[in-house]
């Protein structure tokens, strides 16, 4: 038998259960993976709560990221081998595939060879965060040497990835965090400057750090009332890339600033990249190059055993982590 994470109704972490199920057979174009580690993201929390873009179909699986070993291949799968270490690029709906379990199916186009130098825990922490950061900063905003990049929620796994992606492109990364409690950790993680948004005047501090120019790229998963300060902190012809909505309160927007600064405000989802064959291949190549050169390194905050999947979700929602939360599977 095989244990998988399922839930039968939306709600808090308590709705998650480990349930026994037969080991699935891979169909055409599918890969069966015996997992070793699972990456946890805000997306899973939102999906479980019924606040994601796709509603769960019950009983529902869950999970976008996993690393492990290929156990079987479906018809037509090329370029992968049984016994090969692999990880999963989020490029599918959780209503079709949920990869949080011991033996799980994934579409072959979402499975990539295990990045060298990484543990299974690190490999389960790579693709969601680094491709999200790559998509927003490189693919959409065209980050370039000398740019100043403002990164909201900088202690999240994507925020830390964005610091590294900005540096890989030769840009300066300014980390935004609510209080100064994580300041030193963010500096240690590579942030060039840190602004505590609840304690400092964000636009004034950005002007000071940019000689009055403002930031050319703003990478934000929060929205809400804080977006007004980010618009004010933006440089002329800046790009504001919004990849989440952690704060669902109405956003005040100074349309005059948007107009006269010639700002581009763009919503972005990872799946714009990962469901497009060309863009996904370019993103995977960018991240793989950064991993190989040591320019990109996943940061793991804490690991939980599979039996504590609900507790891992509680820890995620508490918001105290700096980096990725990983769930380990027996046999690691």
Number of helices: 11
Kindly report the average pLDDT value: 94
Largest sheet: 7 strands, mixed
First CA to last CA: what distance?
A: 18 Å
Order of helices and strands: EEEHEEEEHHEHEHEHEHEHEHHEHE
Helix share, percent:
25-40%
Q: What Rg do the Cα atoms give?
A: 20 Å
Described by the principal axes of the CA atoms, the overall outline is globular
DSSP strand count: 15
Tell me the strand percentage band: 25-35%
Structural class based on helices, strands and sheet pairing: alpha/beta
Low-confidence stretches: none
What key phrases describe this protein's structure?
332 residues, alpha/beta, six-stranded parallel beta sheet, 29% helix, oxidoreductase, ADH-like_C, GroES-like_sf, NADP, ER
Q: What would your notes on this structure say?
A:
By secondary structure, the chain is an alpha/beta fold. Helices cover 29% and strands 26% of the residues. Strands 3, 4, 5, 6, 7, 14 and 15 form a 7-stranded mixed beta sheet that branches. The two termini are 18 Å apart.
Short overview:
The protein has helices at 42-49, 120-123, 127-140, 157-168, 183-188, 202-209, 227-233, 255-261, 271-274, 277-293, 309-318, and strands at residues 2-6, 17-21, 30-40, 65-73, 85-88, 103-107, 111-113, 148-151, 172-177, 193-196, 215-220, 234-242, 264-267, 300-305, 324-328.
Topology:
Blueprint: E1 2-6, E2 17-21, E3 30-40, H1 42-49, E4 65-73, E5 85-88, E6 103-107, E7 111-113, H2 120-123, H3 127-140, E8 148-151, H4 157-168, E9 172-177, H5 183-188, E10 193-196, H6 202-209, E11 215-220, H7 227-233, E12 234-242, H8 255-261, E13 264-267, H9 271-274, H10 277-293, E14 300-305, H11 309-318, E15 324-328
Parallel strand pairs: 8-9, 8-11, 9-10, 11-12, 12-13, 14-15
Antiparallel strand pairs: 1-2, 3-4, 3-6, 3-15, 4-5, 5-7
